[in-house]
Amino acid sequence: MKLAPLERLPTTWERAADVIRTGIFAGDFPPGVTLPEVEIARRLQVSRNTARDALRVLVNERLLTYRAHRGVAVRTLGPSDVRDIYLMRRWFELAALDRLDRSPVDALAPIVSAAERAMVDERWGDVGTENLNFHTALVASMGSPRADRAFRQLMTELRLGFLAVRDQVTFHGPYVGRNRRILDLIADGDLDSARDELSTYLDESERHVLEAVEGG
After folding, report:
1. What is the pTM of this model?
2. CA-closest candidate to residue 73, choices 84, 63, 85, 81
3. Other CB atoms within 10 A of residue 103 CB
4. What whole-number distance in Å separates Cα of residue 11 and Cα of residue 15?
5. Which among 84, 76, 74, 61 has a CA at the least distance from the CA of 24?
């Protein structure tokens, strides 16, 4: 009997890159902060070559930047980046609502509840992370692994835009309730209204992040 091919295990540098990537998604690395190769190797307990390879792949993913004689730093988004990210957000998220073949309520409800608890506790970094998780889970409802990977990458980039907003309370607070509203509309089966709510939501979120990266 012919054996099925084994799934390839991630390499050390891939695991290291994923740790850094996850940290960016969680807001642990603000835009502009430098990531010295030696320090990354020490913190992740890997060789400098492994750290270098991990940083290189994240530069290619546009999460980090490299400048000669300055090293690697977390990328700072510009207005064109924000517009492009939101263009793609609309493609993915509105398509998710248009193509629902199974309810995402079970996946979305705990995320909204977690965001509401974080807001009460004034853990605004966690509120931002749960916001990203909510929209990532919505896209995951399409059941496309390729869409999942691409959208997770997009949301990781977007976190860099979120971190440009100075007033995290005013920025994140209203969107917790709006995510709850979208969830309730989906649960009620009113997908047209959910789509309208999400479309308006994305327009307003884009404006807020653009104002932040433009220094407004």
Report:
1. 0.88
2. 63
3. 12
4. 6
5. 74
Confidence of residue 93 (pLDDT cuts 50, 70, 90): very high
> Predicted confidence band at 8 (pLDDT cuts at 50, 70, 90)?
low
* Residue type for position 78: G
Q: Which residues contact 215 (CB under 8 A, 6 or more apart)?
A: none
How far apart CA 171 and CA 22 sit, in angstroms, is 22
Q: Domains of the chain (ranges plus CATH)? A: 12-74 (1.10.10.10), 79-213 (1.20.120.530)
- How far is the C-alpha of 101 from the C-alpha of 153, rounded, in Å? 24
Own/partner contacts of 175-181, CB < 8 Å, gap of 24 or more, are 175/131, 175/201, 175/205, 176/112, 176/115, 176/116, 176/119, 176/127, 176/131, 179/108, 179/111, 179/112, 179/115, 179/131, 179/134, 180/112, 180/116
| Residues contacting residue 130 through CB under 8 Å, at least 6 positions apart | 111, 112, 114, 115, 118
Q: With b meaning 16 or more CB within 10 Å and e meaning fewer, what string describes 44-75?
A: bebeeebbbbbbebbeeeebbbeeeeeebbbb
Q: Supply the angle between the helices 168-187 and 105-120 in degrees, to the nearest 10.
A: 150
